[in-house]
Amino acid sequence: MSEFLQLAFSGLTVGAIYALIALGFTLIYNASDVINFAQGDFVMIGGMGTVFLMAAGLALPVAALIAVIAAVLVGLLLHRLAIEPARGASPVTLIMITIGASIFIKGVSQILFDKQFHSLPAFSGDTPIPVGGATILPQSLWVMGTALALVVALYLFLEHTLVGKAVLATAANRLAAKLVGINVALVLALAFGLSAAMGALAGVVATPITLTRYDIGTLFTLKGFAAAMLGGMGNPVGAVVGGLLIGLIETFAAGYLSSTYKDAVAFLMILVVLLFMPRGLFGSRAVERV
Amino acid sequence: MDMPARLRPVLRAAAVMLATAVAGPALTGPAVAADPIKIGSVVSATGPAAFLGDPEAKTLKLYVDELNKKGGLLGRPVELVLYDDGGDANKARTFATRLVEDDKVVAMVGGTSTGATMAMIPVFEEAGIPVVSLAGGIEIIEPVRAFVFKTPHTDKTACQKIFEDMKARGITKTGMISGTDGFGKSMRNQCLKVIGQYGITVLADESYGATDSDMTPQLNKIKNTAGVEAVLNPGFGQGPAIVTRNYAQLGIKLPLYQSHGVASKSFIELAGPAAEGVRLPAPAILIDDKLADNDPQKPVVAEYKTSYEKASGQPVSTFGGYAYDGIQLVARAIESAKSADPKKIRDALEATKGYVGVTGIYTFTPTDHLGLGTDSFRMLVIRNGDWALEAPAR
Amino acid sequence: MKAILRSRLTPLLALALVMALVPMIAPTSFHLRVAALVWIFSLAALGLTILMGYAGQVSLGHAGFLGIGAYAVAIGPARLGLDPLLCLLLGAVLSGLVAWLVGRPILRLKGYYLAIATLGFGVIVALILHSETELTGGPDGMSVARVTLFGWRVTGALNWYWVSAGALLVGALLALNIAASPTGRALRALHDSEVAATGAGIDVSAKKLAAFVLAAVYAAVAGGLLAAMNGLITPEAASFSHSVELVAMVIIGGLGSVFGTVLGAAFLVVLPQALTAFQEYEQAVLGLLIMVFMIFLPQGIVPSLRALIEERLP
Question: Which C-chain residues 81-110 have CB contacts (< 8 A) with chain B?
Fold first, then answer.
């Protein structure tokens, strides 16, 4: 039982990070139909930015805030300079643009930062908390707590504010949204900025556990994309569930089956789910969008 | 469909670039005065192995500059032709061909990974140009190839050093958790080959991916395996740091052995307090200030550490040290051969005797193109956030 | 002039002409090797051109098939004592078979769902090549036996240049013929609209599967040639970044254009060689170039140029 619990803690921690990235994918996809392959690089900017700002002498909260703002700026620039000019391009072209952006961000980061691994001090110390025979790190609680808070905040924003409703309306039907006077360009920029902020925040809280490096984004992009697809692209609930599921599957596969093939198990699960539910677990959009 | 005018410069730039590549040698660099001696290098300065290749590239640039400040070699300036393979063996092979055919280098220092080195070896063997590899794999020098040398210890030597220590402490049953990258896999296999000679058995054999961020599931399995007396972690990069943290998180009290893949002070920073008590074999470069005053390596290590840290602003690593030894070995060979002829450089390299480097003291022979013994490793333990020399057990 | 531009054989003749010219102007065998790599990656990308350009299906795991072909040529002779040339063929068959098995279920998926499914397939293949050390040599790769072609030992850059050029010509001829055949027209129809294609009586899923299998065979042959030419293969060959590179080749050159695919492959193979002077900035420049091309030339180089020329001609 304690082993099961231990694995579950690990899986939920990793899964919470994936969930935040998957949510970032979902936000951008809903607003613009774009799959943003630079999503994981926001996580890197959050982590690496905080590390280097702290090294420059800033306190953790200040450093984290500036790093998140920097990621938001990168997100807005990505939208303004790369996505906006290519409006109407095919999905593959859009994927390639964001992959190009991801390579570009990594290329600049390795010059701006460096190529070594870095870590941040854990926010509340390194003493493991014993729970039912297993242990959990205080930082894991920070990760899960942050994820939960962001999900709730996002829900409240989308469902209970005018701007949030505008985002949802744009996602549902861009033309109609335009007709009722919604500033679609602003909504799109908002989606990019928000998802960059979520990714960067995930990077800040996760770095004490996962460590960070200029090219760590690719891994998070792949896992986050997989999570978003598993849940059903475009569905925020699906993104969260997909993220947690992939985290748990990986961890349990490593613990009970084979640590070598845990990534294969996660991707096999996705293939199987997609075969029976071609639009993911929570995908229901009937209209063919691609 | 019309093409916007702003596109034309882009296309023109692309055309120029293609032309540059095709025209090749004529445009690859300004002509240097006085016929320089060209030394080539292919390292993984970007890509997944960048944290190894980056210090290697910086070290090579630094010391070729040093050589030139001192007047070069044989009265000629030295030119470093450095390429980045991005961790791709296919690219490494292409750059190897370029170094031989196009740049006409007289020697090559490099190959960050064993895969890249193995891909490049045939090119240099065929051309008769000596290679000093910076990769760990034993297959690079076994069987011995006429033109191939290497500076890093083989994994086997590290395994032997670790098992000697375990044996001296009466440990007979161990658990293993290895990275699935080239380094971890190769070391795991070498360790399994020699472990029998020390009367030690492996009760749990786990692995983790190169980019994994959580190893508690695997460590938990080892924790629950009855009889394990110590754990060994062959791996490099961030893996060992995470293993060490997770090890502490799970409250495993058994001795933890890391390898020489844990190669710089940054490991202690990354692993934090969890690193306390971790044991590992490492070359002298990590403990320059703790070496005895009469240690022949002390001045060499101190000089490299000061110069590198001043030039790069980063802590020295054993990987940069391999490159230091590589370029020094080649420079010495050119000096002692009194010639920049590749074959003569090779002969001089093979005749190297007692070169005191930062990794160890090298003596090459026709049957040994590594020239380091287990004595070049020192058993270290991490205490109070710093390396400490571990007194030999018993 | 327009007739020449539109003729099916023009790109093929142009390609053959370039192939004949390169050895005459290439100063060293390094340049020949780069050219041979261009032909090999063009071949791999051509398969994707059929899949993406003709049939409109995306694959983000295509390097997986390249890896299967490459490791067939490596494993067959080393572990089973088979002839390398035979293994090249077996690799192509195996790759096609795997594509058929995998493609049947996943080609039902659409758009981004197909992207993640193919991506997952590629990741799994790379992981197997990486992990099955006994068979594949693990992350450091395995060496590949020399190829003997009818008693002639293929070594040296020039020989490999002609072998790869020949393979690409055959591949290009086949691709052009497919484009002009009823199958090609059917594929283009389903590219434009699957619903309409079904309505017109086209067996959409069979055609898609055929394109997928064909694309896998192209990639496997290219992989086999790459392994045999290098004499060593590492799991990197099947990596996600290689899959992305293949897709980029197809799109940069021009989706659905055979000549464009070769141009795209040439661009991405030559680029790192041209950028060595700016080593530190190579990745940033590469990323920037991909973005610029995708944004300003979404049709790719060749179709955009063709449109420009046609527009200027009377």
Answer: none
